[in-house]
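User: Can you help me understand a structure? I only have the sequence.
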Amino acid sequence: MSRLPGSHYIPTIVTEERSCSLLGESPIVFQPFVARSILNSHDALILDAARHEGRWTQILTAEQTALTLGQMTSAGSLPWLRDTTSLIGLLDYHVFLRDHLDGCLVDEIVNTLANEHESKLWTRIENGVYICVIGAGVAACIDTTPNLEVLYLRYAEAIIDAIAAAQFERDLPRSVRGLQLTLWERLDALFDGARLRLLHWLSSTSHEHSPGQNLDTSS
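Assistant: Let's start by predicting it. Here is the structure, written out as tokens:
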């Protein structure tokens, strides 16, 4: 190639080799594990087709999947206790998981509860309902009724009365920050198990398993 006029620079063609998916540059530039209602319809269709047709690895590499799953934490994905509009609102803290999380991630959280609740410090109190203590007189509960999975809090009667009478946060018998930190810790233990199981499934092109199945990820 000739030198550009008035310049000592001679243009050269540089080739670059890099691995890429069959779709070229990944069209996924968002968080794929939030609830489908949060995504636009086009993005949701891309994800659902890739997942159910065994083409997920053509959309995201295993590393990209691990990264996006790792970003799904309870603190970053679910409403905080302080988001309630009033102190009395703490008594009615309810979070429907599928309003905030992808259905497959919710399925794996439920599966983690069913198979590993004791090691994650959760207790099954009745069919499909799990509980863990997050403060004296305060417990977090998850009801795993299919498609209606909900996180909520239970309080001892004395705590309910104290919250109802409180005018300011300093009047509460329990620190909201302390309750929140413990809640995140207990939830993230479930998220850890769910992320591992979902990563194993999505990174496999065989589709021998589907979300929610009992899956050995020790290999």
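Now, to help you interpret it: The CA atoms of residues 74 and 185 lie 8 Å apart. The chain has one domain: 36-202. Let me know which part you'd like to focus on.
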